[in-house]
Amino acid sequence: MTDRKRIVVGVAGGIAAYKACTVVRQLTEAGHEVKVVPTESALKFVGAATFEALSGQPVHTGVFESVHEVPHVRIGQQADLVVVAPATADLLARAVAGRADDLLTGTLLTARCPVLFAPAMHTEMWFHPATVDNVAMLRSRGAVVLEPASGRLTGADTGPGRLPEAEEITTLAGLLLERPDALPYDLSGVKALVTAGGTREPLDPVRFIGNRSSGKQGYAVARVMAQRGAEVTLVAGNTSGLIDPAGVNVVHIGSATQLKEAVTKLASEANVLVMAAAVADFRPAQVATAKIKKGASEPSSIELIRNDDVLADAVRARAEGQLPNMRAIVGFAAETGDENGDVLFHARAKLKRKGCEMLVVNAVGEGKAFEVDHNDGWMLGADGTETALEHGSKTLMASRIVDAIGALLNG
């Protein structure tokens, strides 16, 4: 997010209101002009002075402050994005009803920009038919209502209804600023299996053979698919401490063998498999039970054996009728050019070998693809289509990839 935008951060009255402070800080540090509009109840959890210090702007809750500026109309009209975090069950109900009894609900009525609600409430409230209907109504009107995270709630309770982490909220806010139509709720009923991150192949209890994949692109795909309505399971290798996406079932693994076992177990229920993980092609033939030490016993070489090709195995299993629900398989490839051909030359050959519907290709190198927040590449289709993915955030790239996945499923 490099262009300065006007963002309204609405804060409703729930215990998660304290997390809105981090949302405001992250958006202001990204260079945006942030206006905080809390409800009266929110100020019982976080004082106005805190929001004013973080945003650099005065904070009001009612429609009768600075009346000459008509704030209940002007704030919404001028906004490039409205983020409500937390959005309580009460706030969602008032938004659906079109209430305008405070500055925040008035702003929601006048905003014509993307609106992002980040719900936070107890599990029973989230699953109550009234809230379910309200969320569906807001989505039908074009608002983005995030799936909440699952975890510790107020007191000893745990379950779905936890506010997503601030980084996830601001990441998706940034996506909507880059691409306002990036999060339609169009994948409801789709079961997706996504893999992400690099595998680590153990050599001894201390050392391993690995790769530079951070898992950011696969996490972004899983996050976008979940927020577009899919039921997502994410098989995650080494992901450098990334935040697990809200609304996603995450299975953590270490090695390529463990990844294969997880995919084999979970693929039978999935409608789409997205193999974004950087799976090691080889592993040590022998794994030492004790640390290999320098000296007379140190090996002169390490024998490697080939790992199974999880992507090709999935394509084969589907062809043999073992994956009756699978409608699309998407692979990823990190490529470099060589004396035999460029990146696309090798990618086209890989797509043909793998037999999947689509292959997402990245050119790798110093500062490219791995361990960075931005990316570019191509989407190659089994039907011969080739679509360039312009340079942008990995979340923006994920939204384009998910568009293509949606087209495959619909086709």
UniProtKB/TrEMBL annotation:
GO biological process, one term: pantothenate catabolic process
Annotated stretches, region: Phosphopantothenate--cysteine ligase: 192-411
EC number, as in UniProt: 4.1.1.36, 6.3.2.5
Highest taxon, organism lineage: Bacteria
Gene Ontology terms, MF aspect: FMN binding; metal ion binding; phosphopantothenate--cysteine ligase activity; phosphopantothenoylcysteine decarboxylase activity
Residue numbers binding CTP: D281, K291, F332, K350, K354
Keywords of the record: Decarboxylase, Flavoprotein, FMN, Ligase, Lyase, Magnesium, Metal-binding, Multifunctional enzyme
Cofactor info, note text: Binds 1 FMN per subunit.
Metal-binding found in the keyword field: yes
UniProt cross-references to Pfam families, sorted A to Z: DFP, Flavoprotein
General function of this protein: Catalyzes two sequential steps in the biosynthesis of coenzyme A. In the first step cysteine is conjugated to 4'-phosphopantothenate to form 4-phosphopantothenoylcysteine. In the second step the latter compound is decarboxylated to form 4'-phosphopantotheine.
Protein's recorded name: Coenzyme A biosynthesis bifunctional protein CoaBC
Organism of origin: Mycolicibacterium diernhoferi
Gene name linked to the record: coaBC
